[in-house]
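INFO  loader      accepted 1 record
INFO  loader      residues=231
INFO  predictor   begin
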Amino acid sequence: MADKTQTTIDRRTVTVYPAQADDPLSLPVFYSTDFKEAGAAVLARCQKLGCAPFNLAVISDIEWDQLLSPWPHEPVVEKDDKFEGRSPEYLGWLLGTVVPYVEGQLGGEPAASYISGYSMAGLFSIWALYQTDFFAGAVCGSGSLWYPDMRAYALTHELRRNDLRGVYFSLGDRETKVKNPVLQTTEDVMRDLVDRYTQLGIPTVFESNPGNHFRDVDLRMAKGITWLLAQ
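INFO  predictor   done
INFO  writer      dumping tokens
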């Protein structure tokens, strides 16, 4: 595992894991928003999967529902959901503050930048592709693509890049076997987006994993990163 650096920016934690390579800038960087910082665990899983080397930047300790919801909405999963629709604010902070910090730690601009995330952060990773051309691909692990109006938005708006290197979706095979009718739509939305992106010529895949939303999170993210770097 690479040595890491960690700092607090605007009360949020940013952890950078440089690749173990003579020239880390020749390798891509993944920007991952985590509910709890888990970069070391993901990197360990990636190593076991034979993943190509990469740099990793993890953002954690954030206002989860507030910042990762693309537009405001009333509670959907729990009565205390706080879907404030502040993703534009968070994306602006990520690009304007975190990226310069990470590139400073790495010593310059890396070969490519990808975005990855799980659950609400997976939703954010897909939404971000419609807002900026900065990211060359995305990993959406059990992404909250059930989010109201996300399917319509993603199917009627244009991605900011037509040369994306890949988009990876995954979901636990028990995640849609729930009583909440909104959550039941997650796999259908993912498959619709796979079809849409494939038609656009973007390498895209959907992978079903055993278990519910909370099982093998690190492994699922590592599988997505490994797939994307192989494209």
